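User: Show me sequence and structure for the first protein, then do the same for the second.

Assistant: Starting with the first protein.
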Amino acid sequence: MGGCVVLPVTAATADARGKALYEQRCAGCHDRASDRTPSREILSRNPPAFILSAMSQVMAPMAAGLSQDEMKAIALYLSAAAPQPGDPNPNAIWGPSSAQLPLDGPKCEGPPPPIDLSSPQWNGWSPRPDNARYQPDPGFTKTDVPRLKVKWAFHYPGSKNGQATVIGNRLYVTSMSGAVYALDARSGCVYWRFDSLAATRSSVSIGGIANRPGHRTALYFSDWTKSAVAIDAETGEPIWRAKVDDSSGLQMTGSPTLYDGVLLVPISTGNEAFARNDDYVCCKFIGSLVALDANSGEILWKTYTTDKKPEPYRLNAKGKQMWGPSGGSIWSAPTIDPARGLIYVATSNSHTDAFHDGADAVIAMDIKTGAVRWKNQLLKDDNYIIGCPAAANCPHPVGPDFALGDSVILHTLKDGKQMLIAGQKSGDVYALDPDADGRIIWRHRLSSGSSLGGVEFGSAADGDNVYVGISDVVNFRDPKPGLTAIRIADGTILWNIPAPRTACRWTNIFCSGAISMAITAIPGVVFAASMDGHFRAYAAADGNVIWDFNTAADPINDVLGKPAYGGVMDGAGPTIVNGMVYVHSGYAGRSTANIYDLKGREGNLLIAFSVDGK
């Protein structure tokens, strides 16, 4: 959204033109929305600038050939926030570029203290490379949890943001607006903001950097320019940017993992949505993991989730050439196994009926070379695109879309034996043997799952148990949203807490107790958030709720002293360090709790809690 050029588009001229373009290009999917495709009604809750940004980035393949003027007409036609006739400044809806916007919080006074990489931290997706999302030293105890209160809230544009990364008193967070923020972890004031070239959905990792004069520590993330990015963690100055894939429609989502001077970047796509368009060339994308030298950005190796390259294999229902295999995205952060010298990734479904042996699988790769050591395909022939059976590109047969979307957990038992824990949108949870090519040790199906069901963004594990959230926000058979504890040693289910039904300020399907957001655990407590905006703490021993905060019921004053709203809670999860709990609330278009102003800001909050709010 570059606000330097004002095009001659107003609500009046856009209405008829936008309607015609929408019906030609968009209505086929959004008027008959299903699964993960947002309906027209949900799209209308977004500001025009957000819709324009989507057409310019994630939905670019569907908007191919449209001019900027035509895309603006569609955005104005769709958005309920479009200016009305007589508005004195109708072009204000497009706003300035993010780099021209004022800071979203007060600037911190004085220079920040130097970054100390040995200080208490939550660095990346999980405090440790096992991806257990367990904080052994949170800075407060279970008995303190009922006294957690809001200390500060940061209100900023964007959606589907990465979780907070904290090093000492520095907090870093990304957003879909393209902004990366460095905040004071105790107060929420802003040290600096880096404006990336495109949306960024990943969380960040921080580490030392060598052979870069003037730079001591770097902050790493991926953005939707198909790139991995390194910037100075002290100042926000750019260091390097490296393109990691050339495929169309990339949706870089999984957080990069930084380990021993190597940045591991997972690659994922929106192909299964684009393939609903009968004219889309379906499908040439293969998921991959890319390893880069963290100092230089040089690509060291790239490993695809299957060795087979896409090639023409049949015609679709409209007689157009199809390609396959395709799919096997990696939507989550890679997991490191230093003892075995391995990396574990979990993959998503296939997009065509050309067999993909790395879809819906857990794959082990050599940490130095990327060579595949083993793979366990947990579900074969899960061939799926959105819009079936009507779409011409539909595979035969159509699979259920039971991707593995959360990071594999490497767990060590008290006797030293290790297991891998993996969750799937089918509702399945698996324990796998890393010494037997991922052989299944035990398995539980906690729900019947769906394309937005089962296990979504991630589980958490302490020394004994794994805690699994079930979404099932779209499940018309037997939805079972809730939280379950499983003893890892033998697979015994210890407790299951069904999600309570609560009222929301929005009335669509996302007013749900679905637990899709990643979970976090500390000694004796499990933190889980649900789509209805509730953020809860459960006793690890029995699942009893010991604290419940509704992030979306009432406005919360942000660090600028202005009232702001949270909303649907989904995606990257809570982070806990130094006596503080940080969580994101708000997901654009999913709840009417989201509020927009003319600069495209929306109801997204990063909320910081502390004991008694101190």
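Switching to the second protein now.
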Amino acid sequence: GQFEIVGRKAPDFALSGTKGIWRLRDHLGTPLIISFWTTWCGACRKDLDVLEEFYARSGGKFEVVGVCPEYWERVPQILRDHPVSFPVLHDPGEHVTRAYERLDHTRYPFTVFVDNSGRVRCVWAYAFRDVDQLLEILARCGLDKGA
């Protein structure tokens, strides 16, 4: 199944997390990578490392935010082992996660790529192998120039 959200305006949301309240509308104007992950997903931890390496290398050309819908009490331990400088947000009730996923989607991690106008360009429903693969996906989405 396709992610129906591709090509549409990214649903606005506000969630609290590791750096206080984060609102999507406050971050439009810069391409955004939203990573949806869970604490019980091993591949998600590697994804955090890849996203952090990308975020550090991107020099502010991209925003990155993680969204974790479940087991928030386990997040601090995971972030001790896999530290990130981007915000990680809690999605209790999975309202934001459900707004972005496809109906038959139960796999984590999945990553949503939003352009600087707030439109969803593409969704990647797998873990990233490494930063090079993430850069390839950005190019495929037309976001490699920070569009």
